[in-house]
Design brief:
single chain, globular, seven-stranded parallel beta sheet, alpha/beta
Length: about 280
């Protein structure tokens, strides 16, 4: 059942720029009457909200300044959202960070704890706080959790990022099953696992074999359509699913050769710089 967004409310984390902004634009174009943008960048958030509101007369665009890595702040912001706006019809857990470096080059607090908090714990806390209200009344609702192809394959220089997205994927799909098995299928969960996207977040990364960097517009369109349809997962492009399947069929030593020498996965982060343009692990 495809969700009709007419008259609905949508909450987007990481909504100040990039894919978060694109999700918000899509929601407004398709009839949502309220979009709440969450981000820790207050200045950019306000600017984006003003531009979106001007493009959609009659719709309401609100903002919440919050660090998704601060679990207490996320829970408090979610409670405030429920008190002021009620349960969202669509929750998009889009906010994320990436650190591309050898594991022993990661800073423990910023890179290890920070990445796990923003990419995995924050979405869980937000969903946990909102879910009781989202479940009430039997209204069709959606949760889109933005994971990564890194949640399906190990990759050098992505150890902590991959760990955070593996955690997100495992939680997200388990949540989907719990909702279905408890008669709460009106709230459907979609996990989105894209390969590299040209948002600047992965500046310097090279797409593996037959896997060019996707534009944010293409990625958002694929995630969006899967979410509205209530699909459990969307792996994209097709090579992500292929890699996952081949890895499951081969002995690990054989897969390492295929991933490194044929698919070129293991060298894809060698020249990673990220949005700052700094060398890997040195921003």
């Amino acid at each position: 059942m495809r969700l009709d967004l007419t008259g609905t409310s949508v909450l987007v984390t990481g909504g100040a720029l990039g894919m978060g902004r694109l999700y918000a634009e899509r929601a407004l174009r398709e009839g949502a009457t309220h979009v709440d943008l969450w981000d820790r960048d207050a200045e950019r958030l306000a600017s984006t909200a003003a531009e979106l509101a001007a493009s959609a007369p009659g719709a309401r665009v609100s903002t919440t300044v919050v660090d998704m890595g601060d679990a207490s702040a996320v829970a408090a912001a979610a409670e405030a959202h429920l008190a002021e706006h009620g349960a969202p019809h669509v929750l998009i857990n889009n906010a994320g960070v990436v650190r591309g470096a050898l594991f022993w080059e990661h800073d423990v607090e910023r890179d290890v704890v920070g990445t796990m908090a923003i990419n995995a714990i924050g979405p869980m806390v937000l969903a946990r706080t909102l879910l009781p209200a989202m479940l009430a009344g039997g209204v069709e609702r959606r949760i889109l959790n933005v994971a990564s192809a890194a949640a399906t394959l190990s990759n050098p220089r992505m150890s902590v990022y991959a760990a955070s997205k593996w955690a997100l994927l495992g939680w997200s799909d388990s949540l989907r099953l719990e909702l279905e098995r408890t008669g709460n299928g009106h709230v459907r969960v979609t996990t989105f696992c894209p390969s590299y996207i040209s948002t600047g977040m992965f500046e310097g990364a090279r797409g593996p074999l037959l896997t060019p960097l996707m534009t944010p517009e293409v990625a958002v369109d694929r995630a969006w359509r899967a979410m509205l349809a209530g699909r459990p997962q969307r792996l994209t492009p097709w090579t992500v699913g292929l890699g996952k399947t081949v890895r499951g069929m081969l002995p690990l030593a054989a897969w390492d050769v295929v991933a490194d020498k044929i698919f070129k996965v293991y060298g894809s982060m060698d020249d990673f710089r990220g949005r700052t343009g700094a060398p890997a692990g040195k921003d």
